[in-house]
Request: fold
Amino acid sequence: MRKSGGGAGWWVKELNGVLDLFFPAACPLCLVPLRGASSPFCSACSATISPLPAGHCSCCALPFASTTGSSHLCADCLRRRPVYTTVSAAGLYGGALKIAVQRFKYAGSVDLDRPLGQLLLARLPDLSGDETIIPVPLHPARLRQRGYNQSLLLARVLAHKLRFPLEHSLLQRNIDGHSQQGLSAKARAINLASAFSAQGPLQGRSFLLIDDVMTTGATVGACTTALLKAGATAVRVAVVARAPRHSTA
Ligand SMILES: [Zn+2]
Ligand SMILES: [Zn+2]
Reply:
């Protein structure tokens, strides 16, 4: 009989090995067997996922039109520096990443939390280790309708992998995004500024704010403002997909 010195872990490992043999892990998008692939998606799906190009804004991660070039501030960030420190993204909003995010967000495919979290984790910058992970909250009415907050699912994966603390209730959304429809851009901006509130005091605390897609940056900006108002020291943003500003993510 095998020694049980390593606890129950050895047989769980062996069982997983046997299961992999007969039921190999599949690509969560196209269900092709992965067979030891290092990426959470198969090679065909992964080939359609584009990382941020070398030329992107060093603050808001906006991809520049030119495929070559270095990272520097975009015109908007030069004109008015965003309240958050930086934005990290697993990739551009397109290809398999767009399909995965849409299924994750709108089609109840909550099991995409780990594959997407894994992609994002690989693109995170060096963190100080003092950050608290915090998801962009959903309005309670939207949460009831959808049944889950996709950003919280991602935040849980990251907090678990990084062993960072997770806060999921100190930031609240007071105005639903859909109530913004039909408003002018100016009215939307004013509305969004009061859409989030954070419970303080947060003095001396830094946050890693998690969202699925970033387009204009208005939502993560409003969340950051609420956290800073409550005393937070700094907020970094991490999103699965960065969309260009003209996109309708
Ligand atoms: Zn695939
Ligand atoms: Zn920028």
